[in-house]
Structure formats: C-alpha cells, structure tokens
UniProtKB/TrEMBL annotation:
Its cofactor is Mn(2+); Mg(2+). Mg(2+) 1 binds at residues 263, 277. PROSITE patterns: ATP_GRASP (PS50975), DALA_DALA_LIGASE_1 (PS00843), DALA_DALA_LIGASE_2 (PS00844). Keywords: ATP-binding, Cell shape, Cell wall biogenesis/degradation, Cytoplasm, Ligase, Magnesium, Manganese, Metal-binding, Nucleotide-binding, Peptidoglycan synthesis. It comes from Hydrogenophaga crocea. Pfam families: Dala_Dala_lig_C, Dala_Dala_lig_N. It is found in: Cytoplasm. It is an enzyme of class 6 (ligase). Pathway: Cell wall biogenesis; peptidoglycan biosynthesis. GO terms for molecular function: ATP binding; D-alanine-D-alanine ligase activity; metal ion binding. It catalyses: 2 D-alanine + ATP = D-alanyl-D-alanine + ADP + phosphate + H(+). Mg(2+) 2 binds at residues 277, 279. The keyword Cell wall biogenesis/degradation applies. This is D-alanine--D-alanine ligase.
Length: 317
C-alpha cells in the first residue's frame, strides 16, 4: 500500500481516548498506551484521555482538535462516544455513530449481513436458560453462547452438552441482558482488517489464528504467547482473496469508515467462510492483529497510527 506524506502538525492537539467503563478497560489502556507512544514518536501533540476519569465534554474545553479512539466495548465502540464527539465537532478515528452502534450489536449486524446475502452462522436470540436449551436443540452441538454487545470473547461459552446451557446463559447475561446462541463452525479461524473508506477501502492480509486446543479466549488473546498467528495465512491464494472480498463487503454494508477488523470461520468440510462479527475499534496492543496484518503489508505500527489519525472524520462534517 502506498504511503502518503502526512503533516502531523496539522492534526493539532490530539486526545487518545483509552480506558473507559467497559469490561475491556484493561485491554483499552494497553492499546491506548501503545498508540500514544507511537503518535508522540511521530511528532504528534498527543495526550491520554480516560472518559472514565474525565468528562468527555472537557475535550472541547481543553482545545483538543482530533481524537484517536482506543476504547473497546461499550461506551467507546458502540456509537456513544462517537455521538458525543459529533456534538462537539471533534473528528475521530473509525466508523461513525450508526456504523459503530450497529457493529457493536451482533444480532443487528447479522440481520444486515443476511439481508445483504453475506454468510454468517445460524443463530437464536435467547432470553432465559430455557431458551438457551431450546436453541441447543435447534442449532446442535457445539454451540456458542455469548453476550450480544460485548467483545474480546468476554462472557462467551462453547457448549457441547445441554446441561451446560444454564451456566452459559448466566455467564453471558451477567455481561449483557441481550444474549445470543450461535452455531459453531468447525475449521480455520481467521481475521482480516480493512483500512480506508468507501471505494478506497482495502482489505489487509488475512491472519490465521491457531489457539491452544482451539480455545481463542480472553486469556489466549491478550495475556499468553501460546496462540500462533500465521501471516502469510497459508491458505490457498484464491481462498485468501475470497475472504478479503467478503470482509470488504461486510465493512461496506455496515457503512464503516477508517478501519475495522472482521472475524471469519472457514468450514473445514466445505471451505465456505462465515462472518462472525466486525470490530470497529480493534485492539492495538502487543498481541493485536491489525498491527500484525499491517506489518505484513509494509505498514509499521507508528505509520498505521498516523494513517488512522489522518483519516479521522465526522459523520456530519
């Protein structure tokens, strides 16, 4: 991908939003710290800003002219912060209010993808442990039970027996009153970032994820070195290109801009890819996947941060 020279002084005073109030606060602080250091290394006048500790309205008062959103989960990735920044007229990284809100809601995301003819595993919305057992009967084993509006596999359970349904529902409902069950797709787990907006959006190299015992949970995502990330992904060239095209369509159907990362499962038997979800404020930690994919495309971590900040925008500008 071509590098475009950027005058970092034109960014003005920049806030890196990190921390926040979601269950992913710890990871957000790790992401934000990395972004802050990278932007400062490139000469950007960047400052940490934690919305859990300071009123978001202080951004305008304190003269911030642009925001890099390194928040994850609710109150950061779900359109709420984006809306607050729209009201203050401060451009921000990543998708806008509607795209962020929709993408945070896994059920709404699936409904749109299905309407657009994009493949995603079968699912059921559940409101009780009894609903979860009924979903298990309908979807079969294994089945994934997870909160609708949470990320980083928090509150997620892979259910293989019906007697596990009650505990799985309780765990997910503790994170979000909206819970869903999803058909488990056995096969290769991959992820693919997208950079850019509209017709200029481009999919980066696909990463294949090989987790211990196939368990890519919160611990294996962020706090161990046991998970293997393969880039180049080792898939046939035609398969990788098809996944990149699918992810690009998933990004565009939700009207995303700036960047995002979509997670995909490839059915081992049919080799058909299925979209799981899309992350509109992906991690930027030492274990994170967008920087890893960007490096494979010749984009350094620091250049990626600057590029994302340069693309900061408003929905209603």
């Amino acid at each position: 991908m071509e590098k475009t020279p950027v005058d970092v002084k034109s960014f003005g005073k920049v806030a890196v939003l990190m921390g926040g109030r979601s269950a992913e606060r710890e990871v957000s602080l790790m992401s934000g710290t990395g972004v802050l250091q990278a932007l400062r290394a490139k000469g950007v006048d960047a400052h940490a800003f934690d919305p859990a500790e300071r009123d978001i309205g202080e951004l305008k008062r304190d003269g911030f002219q642009r925001c890099f959103i390194a928040l994850h989960g609710r109150f950061g990735e779900d359109g709420t912060v984006q809306g607050a920044l729209e009201l203050q007229g401060i451009p921000y990284t990543g998708p806008g209010v509607m795209a962020s809100a929709v993408a945070m809601d896994k059920l709404m995301t699936k409904r749109i993808w299905i309407a657009e003819g994009l493949p995603t595993p079968a699912w059921r919305q559940v409101r009780s442990a009894a609903d979860t057992r009924a979903a298990f009967e309908a979807l079969g084993a294994p089945m994934i039970v997870k909160p609708v509006r949470e990320g980083s596999t928090i509150g997620l359970t892979k259910v293989t027996r019906i007697d596990q349904c009650d505990a799985a529902y309780a765990l997910a409902a503790k994170q979000d009153p909206m819970v869903m069950c999803e058909q488990f797709i056995a096969g290769d787990e991959v992820t693919c970032p997208v950079l850019g907006t509209g017709a200029q959006a481009q999919a980066l190299p696909v990463i294949r994820i090989v987790a211990p015992d196939g368990n890519y949970d919160y611990q294996n995502k962020y706090f161990t070195d046991d998970t293997k990330y393969l880039v180049p992904c080792g898939l046939p060239a035609g398969e990788e290109a098809a996944i990149q095209l699918l992810v690009l369509k998933a990004f565009q159907t939700l009207d995303c801009r700036g960047w995002a990362r979509a997670d995909v499962m490839i059915d081992a038997a049919t080799r058909k890819p299925y979209l799981l979800e899309i992350n509109t404020s992906p991690g930027m930690t030492g274990h994170s996947l967008v920087p890893m994919s960007a490096r494979a495309a010749g984009i350094s971590y620091e250049d990626l941060c600057v590029r994302l900040l340069a693309a900061a925008a408003l929905d209603n500008a």
